[in-house]
Structure formats: structure tokens, C-alpha cells
Amino acid sequence: MELKNKKLSETEFLMERKQVLAQWKTGSDPDLDFERAIAFLKQIPDEKNFAIKMAKAKATGQTMIQPRAGVPVLSEHIKLLQYLEASGADFVPSTIDSYTRQNRYVEAERGIQESSVQNRAMLNGFPAVNHGVEGCRKVMESVGVPIQARHGTPDARLLAEIIHAAGWTSNEGGGISYNIPYA
């Protein structure tokens, strides 16, 4: 593969985006429409916006707390993040599971199902792509602090589309900055 530092034309970008969204069934959510996603993100209150909260903390010299955590079953993930927030976390994480970090959504789906059957986490994080915009939005709406997706996904395009359309305001990790520890 040859790498180039070249901006795609809008047509090329939209064609590639269409392929990315087709990687998993949750990529067909109507809330992934650019205009809808942008409008939704613009109405996120400042107290749930990661960058704004970080800037305020920096300006006042305040140290913030963010644990790391993530479990596969949506209801359990929400309970976990609510617990972390109630315990004093300034930001809550959604550590993404290793199958999702490798874009292996079929295996992540099996992990969600097995976790429900076993009544314990059978994945090492939260499979945000599998839960889609609807599930990730439920997570965002369940807490009063910003959420950050924590991952090391070499190709996080679908993950980023979903979490940001759901109102998450931070996305940490990726193919360049985290390819060695995670991938």
C-alpha cells in the first residue's frame, strides 16, 4: 500500500465513506447523516463536551479524573459509567473491546451474546460499533459528564462515525498513536 498525504475530493471521500458505513449493519443508521450528526453534536451541553471541560480545567489549574473501563452489555456498561461518575470521575471512558479494535464485528456480536448468557463480561471492553448510534446515545444520555472512546483501532472510521453521531465528544487512539500497544 502506498501512502499519500493528499486530500480526497468530496466525491472520493463520500464514496469511501459509503464503503466504511457498509462494514457493519449499524452503519446504515439514519443518524449517521452528516447534517443530523452535526446538528446533534452542536446541541451537546458544555458540561458534556470533553474539549470544553478540559479547557476550563486547564484555565483553573484543576486536575481531572478519568478511569478506564468498558464492558460489552449495554445496560451493564451504563451502570458502570454511572457508578464511575457517582464516584467522582470528571470524564467517563468507554474502552473499546479488542474485536472492535480490529473491525471484527461478527466476533464482537458473539461476545455480546455470550456475555448476556454467562452474565459476565466475555469481551475486554465496549463494542460501540455493534451497539450503534442508538446504543451509544443511550450511554451518552445516561451520564452527566463527557464520554471518551478509548481505543487503539488501526482503522477507526466506522467507530468514529458512530460515537460522534451519538454525541460522544472525544475519541482517543488510532492507527498511528496506538498501533503498537493495541494492534
The computed structural class is: mainly alpha
Mean pLDDT: 93
Strand content: 5-15%
Shape: globular
**Helix amount, in percent?**
40-55%
Short description:
The chain has 183 residues and is mostly helical. It has 9 helices and 3 strands.
Break the fold down into its secondary structure elements and pairings.
Layout lengths: L9 H12 L12 H9 L7 H11 L13 H13 L5 E4 L2 H4 L3 H14 L9 H14 L5 E4 L6 H9 L4 E3 L6 H4 L1
Parallel strand pairs: 1-2, 2-3
Helix pairs in contact: 4-7, 7-8
Structural descriptors:
single chain; 183 residues; mainly alpha; globular
Can you characterise this structure?
It is a single chain. With 183 residues, this protein is mostly helical. The chain has a domain at 66-175. The protein has helices spanning 10-21, 34-42, 50-60, 74-86, 98-101, 105-118, 128-141, 157-165, 179-182, and strands at 92-95, 147-150, 170-172. The chain has a 3-stranded parallel sheet. Helix 8 (157-165) links the parallel strand 2 and strand 3. The longest helix is centred in the middle third of the chain and has 14 residues, at 105-118.
